[in-house]
Amino acid sequence: MHSRRDEPTLSVTLLSIVAVLCAALSGAACADAEEMPDGSAGTESGGASSGGGEIPVDEMPPECRLPEEQDPKRGIEIRLENASDTPVYMFMDCLGRYEITSCADGYTKPLEVHEGCRVDCAFEPVDVCGSCQRCIGSVSEITPGRPRLLFWGGIHYHASERPSGCPCYKPLTFPGGRYRFRVPVYMSEHDAFAGLSPRWVSADFTLPLIGGWLSVPVAP
Fold first, then answer.
1. Segment Disordered: which positions (predicted)?
2. Are 78 and 150 in contact (CB under 8 A)?
């Protein structure tokens, strides 16, 4: 998924790894932590603001980093491509149905890649809560001449809470590094709507993405 030198001592490295697992990959459990498109996100009642920040690159384990001179502040286009004659189907709604995970924790915990029905924590006034219109899902058929296109901006919508008690998010840019994209696909439109017998497909990528887009084969 997400956006993301002198050698540290062992203790500093361990603290850094703990920090990224808390600040970057946790939700409510780290709601008070320091700072660290897919266009299907629901409509919010409030506007967006520029609040947010970056996850320090030192919090990305060395084996997951990219060269420092590369700029991670770019999203990625994802193309689900079917090279077979058999159609494949994918379900999407306002919450999204794909996952992006980070090398930082061994690709184990999905990142929050959608705003959801929350407002930016920095939005004024502070008593405004986010709200969504009805979340309507749809199914896309993926064929050789009709790939499914997605976009991820390299942003982690870190869960937090406003003083009013409303849930909110902090938009945090991930550092350059290694990530993984996963999505369930289905053999029929009915199965896609019902969530029956999903087949997960995946592809690893880097931020920034080298080559312009991420191609994900989905052929059965």
1. 34-72
2. yes
pTM: 0.65
Q: SS in 3 state form for 68-95? A: CCCCCCCCEEEEEECCCCCCEEEEECCC
Contact 53, 172 (CB under 8 A): yes
Triad 201, 20, 97: Cα angle to 5° = 30
Q: Is the dihedral of CA 130, 132, 137, 142 positive or negative?
A: negative
Residues in the chain: 220
Average pLDDT by stretches of 10, the chain with 220 residues: 39 37 36 33 35 53 64 75 95 84 92 85 81 80 92 87 88 87 96 95 87 88
pLDDT for position 44? 34
The pLDDT of residue 68: 56
Apex 170 CA angle, 169 and 173, nearest 5: 130
φ, ψ for residue 184, nearest 5 deg: -85, 135
Whole-number Å distance between alpha carbons of 176 and 104? 11
Q: Is the previous residue joined to 87 through a cis bond, with omega within 30 degrees of 0?
A: no
> What confidence score (pLDDT) does residue 99 get?
93
Quote the pLDDT of residue 115.
Answer: 82
Which residues, 6 or more positions from 90, have their beta carbon under 8 angstroms from its beta carbon? 80, 97, 139, 140, 142, 148, 183, 184, 185, 186, 192, 218
Residue of 72, 62, 71, 73 lying closest to 103 (CA atoms): 62
CA–CA separation, 152 and 162 (whole Å) = 25
